[in-house]
Amino acid sequence: MVDIVNASGMSMSNMSFDRYWLESPEFRLHWLIKVYSTPTFIIAGSIGNMTVAAILYRHQLTWQHSICFYMFVYALLNTLVLNLAFGLNWLPFVVRVRHVMEIADWMCRVYQLIFRIITYFPAWIIVAMMVDRVVSPSSSLRHVCTIFVAELVTVFIFIGLVAISIHAMWMYELMNGECYILEPPNFMTIVWPWIAATFYSYIPFVALLTLNVLLCLRWHHIVVSYSVKQHQFTRATLLVSVSYILCNFPILLVNFIDRAQPSWLHAWHNFVRFLVVHEVCQLIGCLHHAITFVIYFSTMSLFRCSLKCHKDTTRQTRDSVTDLEMRALDTSENHQNDL
């Protein structure tokens, strides 16, 4: 999860603060964390998530099980978050190019809208995955765990995020080369960020905590009711949910402090430390999107077998090519000897 609502009210265009920040030891630590850790997570996570999506699509599981449809969507969203959220913020920091939202005023507004939708979409998909796993063992509710319902839920989540995030189109403006909220203090700039944060983070976080407890309480019933494959799907979903909670709780707490604006945060020496803590917490949130594929491969035999079969197929293909080359070479040598 990435914080995109800065309620601090502290202008980073203040030259004296910029000088204080750039000369502080905290800036060096912040720079090291952002420059070296972020691209590692982006590359590893993108490869892993696209591998998960490819395996689900190749085996046509995306259109057979609702939970696999959610996993497919979640893998794609993780890739988008890693590259469009973390990647686009990392690139200008390293190569000193203009951020895409700083190119034009309309790009500033559109980027803020898309950024919010992509960033907070995965949390609600995990909620949908957990609901699917909680209700699917029940014979009376199993009919809602279909591909059609999964597609419908995904569309509703998207529409809801657009409705909550559309305010960014008129709240943000490009001023002095930076994308800011320039409106005076009013409902949209003071109250609405809290409402948006509630739908973005707080509701899905509480929902996941509740669903995790329910799933654990029903675990014995799930083990008895499910096949081995369905049980693996449930175990993987539970671990993904737990990973999300653990990795995003720090940034959730930091964002709450940022919006609440306690008095101690206005001191510069405290604020620069807060920036470092904020960066570390964002990196922990990035870690979740990067390691989800590890959870799938460690808990589900489907992914391990697919990877093993791919290696075996590659080895057999390579051996076949080698045999053909050797036969061609032998034929050529025999032909030369005949001459």
From TrEMBL:
The chain crosses the membrane at residues 36-57, 69-90, 110-131, 143-170, 190-215, 236-257, 277-298. PROSITE patterns: G_PROTEIN_RECEP_F1_2. Keywords: Membrane, Transmembrane, Transmembrane helix. Its main location: membrane. It comes from the Eukaryota. Signal peptide: none annotated. The keyword Transmembrane applies. Residues 48-296 form the G-protein coupled receptors family 1 profile domain. It is found in: Membrane. InterPro entries: GPCR-Ligand_Int (IPR052954), GPCR_Rhodpsn_7TM (IPR017452). GO terms for cellular component: membrane. SUPFAM superfamilies: Family A G protein-coupled receptor-like (SSF81321). PANTHER family: CNMAMIDE RECEPTOR-RELATED, FMRFAMIDE RECEPTOR-RELATED. This is G-protein coupled receptors family 1 profile domain-containing protein. It comes from Ridgeia piscesae.
